[in-house]
Amino acid sequence: MSAILACSSSILYKTSICSKLVLHAQQNGMSCPKPNPPFLTEKYEKSRSTDHGHKGQLLSPSYSSIFQCTSNSECNPRFQNVPEVISHSSIADLADPDENNEMARFAEGAKNGNLIPLYKCIFSDHLTPVLAYRCLVREDDREAPSFLFESVEQGSSGTNVGRYSFVGAQPAMEIVAKENKVTIMDHEEGKSIEKIVNDPMSVPEEIMKGWSPQIISELPDVFCGGWVGYFSYDTVRYVEKKKLPFTNAPEDDRNLPDVHVGLYNDVIVFDHVEKKAYVIHWVQLDKHSSIEKAYYDGKRHLDVLLARIQNIESPKLLSGQVNLHTRHFGNSLKKSSMTSEEYKKIVLEAKNHIIAGDIFQIVLSQRFECRTFADPFEVYRALRVVNPSPYMCYLQARGCILVGSSPEILTRVKNNKIINRPLAGTIRRGKTEEEDSLLQNLLLNDEKQRAEHTMLVDLGRNDVGRVSKSGSVKVEKLMSIEKYSHVQHISSTVTGEIIDGLTCWDVLRAALPVGTVSGAPKVKAMELIDELEVTRRGPYSGGFGCIAHSGDVDIALALRTIVFPTSFCFNTMYSYKSEKKRQEWVAHLQSGAGIVADSIPDEENTECYNKAAGLARAIDLAEAAFVNRDS
Question: What pTM did the predictor assign?
């Protein structure tokens, strides 16, 4: 089977090449892959190829939308006359019997909801998430909100490749908040409005209340569409308005958004175990005059997405070549938001507050800056090599680009179960299994590390308890070891069941920011951070991730995250690669250290530098692999 095979688990086109290939695969014990998602809007329809015969082109596309619908669900009031729509003669004129069948299923789903996915499954052995992203977003288009999320899951012996990766571009809607001013950009309607609100997170929350998404068992039980973006550290000021007002925040020298989320109805989900990809387009019925029009518009949209990601010869993706070992990199930090002496001074001030009993612990950070001719996407590709982590992120947002490799979740909600995973206590990996085990035992028996971790577990229990049913909060895992490429951490897991009537956004409000980046007691520690740190943190120590149409949440803590400020919509720094001439980018790398009563200022300052230098290794690797190759 030389061409890309796309197939539906429910429909085989009897007269198509695709059906013959599928039948051949089934006779030989091979499984039929499920649908995969890209994303594009009408501006790409003109460039869509109509020649379905070239190598790599999808053969005889089919569309799947199989629903698990209950008979007692309420019908969508806009489409009550479903039987009339199904029997309409125009459908028979336009579609073959199998397509009529799909249309009928689509109409059946419309009885029970107003948000329905069309999807396609293709073999992904010809396509990587990195290449798929570049197929959808041009190299020079850094004003386009988009994302690439990947994962390296952790096993007892070290790193394993994560099963799923996610790619998205061209959101249907964006919500950008700067303090209390919110800009809502509806790209499908072609309009933008601004408003003043107390809590910007209430805007997407209200929009979600109007959704009734249909659940499809054939799609993987992971993020398949919804809100994607970041929430800055300063998002907490929408919740703690009296104690942490924006007027008390440090200097805002970058003017970055406090919240940016996009509504992604087009998503590609890569399944690396089964070597297939799901191309998904969510159809919002309320934006169409009839079910028939919604179905065929959605089908055409999916055609465009499929054609776009299959044109793998169009994007230029340098392979990159490095002769040096990555351990040699990491010396490109040039500037900090404060001098070493200034940082050590605020550490001493924090210790005085600890001795006075104001707080038990506080995390103080500083922001480093370096400049590079490597493109942010090239830096992301290098970061995947230098520091593989459970939450790899390339996120183009309004005002900045985030390149991250976070080891830790900020919060997760799955089927109304809240999950918080404090990660605190760190030691390096050993060069041998024996040394690795010895270092692990040293970490677990370090009283200082254990005390700090226990305190953060208590903070996690408090955060989860604020939005959980009484008696449902549990510590499911206490002080286990998680191993990464260069370090190992102490980890615990706190869970709870969300209170009836609360939403996933309430869980996010309760979690931001976690104690591992603020301190204890949390609010008092953040008040002192406002006094001691010299600039706003921005995305650092906030979160990035996704809120699914279903209400499930997966937000990573924005640590080990490089921020590349851009100027689009906001008056900040911006550089780019134009034609063959490279321009210089400004990269911000922020890191912090947990301060306790016996902290030594010199050591805490060194810890900040070492953490940032680890990120800088990715920039240096990108320079060696891509920039030096151009010169």
Answer: 0.81
